[in-house]
Amino acid sequence: MHTGLQAGLKIMFFLFLLLPAFAAQAAIKGDPVTVCPAPSPNKTQQSTNSVSFSWAPVSDGASYQIFWVRAADNQSSAVQSVSNTSITFSGLAPGNYSFYFATNCGTESSSYIILDEIICE
Q: Which of 5, 11, 72, 101 has the most Cβ atoms closer than 10 angstroms to its Cβ?
């Protein structure tokens, strides 16, 4: 007897095995295989209640999505979409924060890059 979890894992494993074949087939047919690269943010400045980040432009990056999560209560900010390559968050309450950054390349987005253990006092 299989549980739903076991069946789901089998399907995911099967898809994991087939995905490279589909990507290779698309490349052979000349179909574009696009990947939206994630930004590489760096913390550039920090004070007691603010923190600034910057990153190099990503090719084909139309905009960037950034938000934070505070560890103590899992409160998160709204996702901010910016077209420039820097951002400052101010008015942060004391706590330990994780900041999430992704690139929007038009029809697709990158995975999020996380900078965590940023402490505001």
A: 101
Nearest to 42 by CA among 30, 54, 31, 58: 54
Return d(Cα 39, Cα 65) in angstroms, integer.
10
pLDDT band at 55 (very low <50, low <70, confident <90, very high): very high
Domains of the chain, by residue range, sit at 1-33, 42-120
What strands lie across the sheet with 95-104, from one edge to the other?
A: 80-82, 63-70, 95-104, 113-120
* CATH fold for the domain made of 42-120: Immunoglobulin-like (2.60.40)
> Rounded to an integer, what distance in angstroms lies between the CA atom of residue 45 and that of residue 18?
45
- Our measurement of the distance from residue 14's CA atom to the centroid of its chain's CA atoms, rounded to an integer in Å, reads 26
User: What residues does 68 pair with on adjacent strands?
Assistant: 99
